[in-house]
Amino acid sequence: GHLYTTVLAWVIRNFKKMSGFEARLFTGSDEHGQKISQLAAKANLEPQEFVDKNVENFKFLWEKFEIDYDYFQRTTNLNHKNFIKKIFLKMYEDNHIFNGEYQGLYSISDEEFLSQSQAVYQNGNYFHPVSGAKMELISEKSYFFPIKRFQKWLEDFLLENPKFIFDSKIANELRQNFLQKGLEDLSVTRKNLKWGIFLDQKFENQTIYVWLDALFSYLSVFKDQIDLENPKKSNFWTDSAQII
């Protein structure tokens, strides 16, 4: 799947360049999160060693299939980490991050949070779907992104731009499984996550949750060209394609 989507992106980049456009192909690796740390432990490696090994495998794959790219961004790169911290602070200052309480099911042995729909319910208890460990309902302090504020904007945007999501089946799934049920504000930090981008004492040394960290890798690669006070001035991503 990773090879397939990268080949598509490579073809689009080359076609645009042949058509006279300034086009660039960005790829990379998403390297943080609890899942990575668990896989590293199973391989008897430190998380950084584990992701270093994975990156070499990806680069070997692109070389083997003669896929040249303009940027390869790793979320463990220092330039990415520093950019994400600036983004998080900017979102907080603009009231797009707020402090709250995260509640969910937690497996101590797996060190993993799950929603009730993700866990297995049996005889009045919840269990981890992979390990079978009993899960406890716990609460912890967290920072949230208030996505509920943007539900109406998102619904209107998708209605006005029906081709924004190319596959209509996926667009319908988004509407039915998320928008129609009502969006819930998203927890964007974790208190006890050991492998990720750590915030300072102002944010109680919490770790930025991997989905927020990874998504901004599309911007951190162009960090020197982005004015956080006026991001619309940036040259890139005004006409872009994300292949998933």
UniProtKB/TrEMBL annotation:
The keyword Protein biosynthesis applies. Keywords: Aminoacyl-tRNA synthetase, ATP-binding, Ligase, Nucleotide-binding, Protein biosynthesis. One of its GO terms (molecular function) is ATP binding. One of its GO terms (biological process) is methionyl-tRNA aminoacylation. Residues 1-118, 130-239 form the Methionyl/Leucyl tRNA synthetase domain. The keyword Glycoprotein does not apply. Belongs to the class-I aminoacyl-tRNA synthetase family. This is Methionine-tRNA ligase. It comes from Mesomycoplasma hyopneumoniae. The lineage of its organism: Bacteria, Bacillati, Mycoplasmatota, Mycoplasmoidales, Metamycoplasmataceae. The gene is metS.
